[in-house]
Input
Amino acid sequence: DTNFFESIERIEIIACGTSKHAAMVGSFLLEQFSGIPTHVFYASEFRYSPPPLAPNTLTIGVTQSGETADTLAALNMEIKRREQFGNDLYKPNVIAITNRVESSIGRQISNIIDVSAGIEIGVAATKTFFGQLLSFYGLAITFAQIKKSKSTQEINKLISELTSLPPILKELVNTHNAISEKLAHDFSDIKDVIFLGRGINYPIALEGALKLKEISYIHAAGYPAGEMKHGPIALLDKKVPVISIATPGKVFEKVISNAQEAKARDAFLIGISPKSDGTEIFDYLMPLPVIDEWLSPLASIIPLQLLSYHIAAHRGLDVDQPRNL
Ligand code: BG6
Output
């Protein structure tokens, strides 16, 4: 319904964990590509401190399982407070992105984007994270078309590059499966890992760190690369690997210069990047194909997921059933 999309002036997204990271990539796209002010909230925070009500707002709930209590409660609370407000401009407009249509969220929300990635066996979501990203690309493209935030040419270029990705990413999975397995040997005794990314890849740094923590119980933290010098840099020495996502585009040089700052502290630098001028700085390069910067998270997440998987497997851990989750 074009009218529905046309009327939306701002977006709030509610999610937890990995779904929150997909939502952050989504928020970047919805703001920067589709031109709509967007905020992402941890569901557990939103429940107790929701933002002041704003008109013509789309609320998006993101949950792989469709059952996360905080996400359901935050979404229901938002629907209720908008209904109670009783002003048509403030009425709830809700979409849920889930991989389980037969779930609580699927029963409660009528506008569903079905991620359709098949059952996620592992507690630590991987393929459904990718599917959530694709859902956001779909939404961002639709909004961009309706709001005319980008030219038809630019939008069509993105769509055509997106549709050409599957064989490229398939090859990437195969290559990095082998690379990560080898690298995992050197990583099994590591205590801390820092992940850096900027712009659209900042949430991917967060997700890389979360995956490593969840399944291999190694302490990891993700930062926007430009923030590293404002504190986290104090952690660095040669025992702390720094994994830096440096994809071609607007912030490439910036990320490389942040990597240089880490190198000056003797950190072991791993680059997630296509090989190019500037990437010699990395002690180890996990090579990416060159793809459009807007689409780069779809590639950069793959080596990070595989690396976590192989480190956990190398440590003899059950990757599907992490403790405490
Ligand atoms: C946590 C899981 O409990 O829930 C995370 O450990 C997951 O891996 C988070 O990302 C959110 O889950 P969901 O199903 O709402 O996306």
Observations:
- The pocket of 6-O-phosphono-beta-D-glucopyranose is lined by residues 16-19, 63-65, 68, 71, 123-125, 214, 325 (CB under 6 Å).
- The CA atoms of residues 271 and 285 lie 5 Å apart.
- The mean pLDDT is 95.
